[in-house]
């Protein structure tokens, strides 16, 4: 009987490890780089055309102090003292009980967005010296002020104040001003005008320091200035 040499048997664990090792080598052997198509798309902020799509608006207000407020008479004056109001006759020769009036019209400039206006209280006009002609501000504190406004009427006289709703400021000339809520609207692009009427009165019994008589007001003069603060409103395209 021939004898055959018995082959050494691999254990199950050895076979498993060999298989895994072979599989690992096989897996590495088939690794490949895959090609792919590519494409890009761009957009730019160009609005509806080929130009810029982002930018800023402009807001500018202009004034006219000469009735009947022709369009060519509007101008910008952004620093104190501004344009010279034209008061009704007698403004430089007041006696107790007298009242004088002065109008002004404001609007946005062409190309401007819409906005609002808020009148501020008076302050001395730049380039004038109230103290030299009104020592201790006696006349300034004695005079009273009312301001009325309208979006439709340029009239500036006693009838302007007949409707209480039109009056936005009343009190001493030195301090009278509207409340923060009493703003007036201006349409964009010069398409609306807001008219204001200043009424200044020297009362028959003005406010004076104790011991001072009304005669102490003779020969005095004051030059108040007022600022209109304009604020743009958001535009919707």
UniProtKB/TrEMBL annotation:
Domain of life: Bacteria
Protein name: Acyl-CoA dehydrogenase
């Amino acid at each position: 009987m021939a004898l055959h040499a018995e082959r050494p048997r691999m254990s199950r664990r050895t076979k498993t490890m060999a298989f895994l090792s072979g599989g690992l080598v096989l897996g590495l052997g088939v690794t490949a780089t895959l090609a792919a198509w590519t494409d890009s798309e761009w957009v730019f902020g160009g609005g509806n055309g080929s130009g810029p799509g982002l930018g800023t608006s402009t807001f500018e207000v202009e004034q006219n102090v000469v009735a009947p407020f022709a369009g060519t008479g509007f101008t910008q004056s952004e620093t104190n003292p501004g344009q010279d109001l034209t008061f009704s006759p007698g403004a430089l020769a007041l006696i107790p009980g007298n009242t004088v009036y002065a109008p002004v019209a404001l609007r946005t400039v062409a190309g401007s967005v819409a906005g609002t206006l808020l009148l501020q209280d008076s302050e001395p006009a730049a380039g004038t010296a109230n103290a030299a002609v009104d020592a201790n501000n006696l006349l300034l504190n004695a005079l009273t002020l009312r301001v009325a406004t309208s979006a439709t009427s340029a009239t500036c006289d006693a009838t302007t104040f007949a409707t209480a709703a039109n009056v936005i400021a009343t009190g001493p000339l030195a301090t009278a001003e509207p409340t923060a809520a009493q703003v007036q609207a201006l349409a964009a692009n010069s398409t609306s005008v807001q008219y204001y009427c200043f009424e200044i009165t020297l009362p028959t019994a003005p406010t004076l320091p104790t011991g001072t008589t009304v005669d102490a007001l003779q020969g005095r003069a004051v030059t108040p200035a007022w600022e209109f603060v304009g604020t743009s409103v958001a535009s919707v395209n």
